[in-house]
Amino acid sequence: MVKNEDIKKILDTLEEIYPEAECALTHKSVYQLIVAVALSAQTTDKSVNLVTPALFEKYPTPYELAEADPKEVAEYIKRIGMYKTKSKNIVGLAKSLVDNYGGEVPDNYDDLVSLPGVGRKTANVVLSVGFGQQRIAVDTHVFRVANRIGLTNEKDVLKTELSLMERIPEERWSRTHHSLIYHGRQCCDARKPKCDDCPIEEYCDYVK
């Protein structure tokens, strides 16, 4: 794995290269954020951003969405993957917010993962982006890039998250999450990584 003394160099470089790195899902509230993240599973953020404006115009708060027919909701999101399951999940999520949390998104992990369609990654994104907590949400980009370059060396998502939390200073967790995503999208491609153009190539285990 990458040496501990090189981690700061890698993170500093990525933050310099991707100063704009932040959540790519369009949202105006924590409610919109959690719905958008739930919809983004196995789907690109770009695709989610295409369907959420009309969805949120129709269902501007959890109260409207909680009363919706999942089949009607599905019509708004049918261009994204698993839209039928996701429509049921976000209606169930909204009902839980209304029934158990006064229509507000909870700001702690245990309550978040109790919501329909909300797993560990979604909860961490909401806590980080929505509530300003330091979190590392491991999606496909973070998992691939972190293990490929040698920030960690794990075989599953949870172990990758825990390893990154151990090796990276807590005050950098959220920023690192976004930097790794951007690097995965723009340089460290799954099939054809652009190693010759990579700003951290000298530290990377994959290149070595």
Characterize this entry briefly.
This protein is mainly alpha-helical. It is 58% helix and 0% strand. It starts with a helix and ends in a 22-residue tail after the last helix.
Features of the shown structure:
mainly alpha, 11 helices
Structure in words:
The chain has helices spanning 4-17, 30-39, 45-58, 62-66, 70-77, 83-101, 109-113, 120-130, 140-149, 157-167, 173-186. By secondary structure, the protein is mostly helical. Helix 2 crosses helix 3 (45-58) and helix 2 (30-39) packs antiparallel against helix 8 (120-130). The mean pLDDT is 96.
User: How does the major sheet shape up?
Assistant: none
Give the oligomer, counting copies of the same chain as homo and different chains as hetero: single chain
Extract low-pLDDT stretches.
none
Percent of residues in β-strands: under 5%
Shape field: elongated
Please write out the topology.
Elements: H1 4-17, H2 30-39, H3 45-58, H4 62-66, H5 70-77, H6 83-101, H7 109-113, H8 120-130, H9 140-149, H10 157-167, H11 173-186
Helix pairs in contact: 2-3, 2-8, 5-6, 9-11
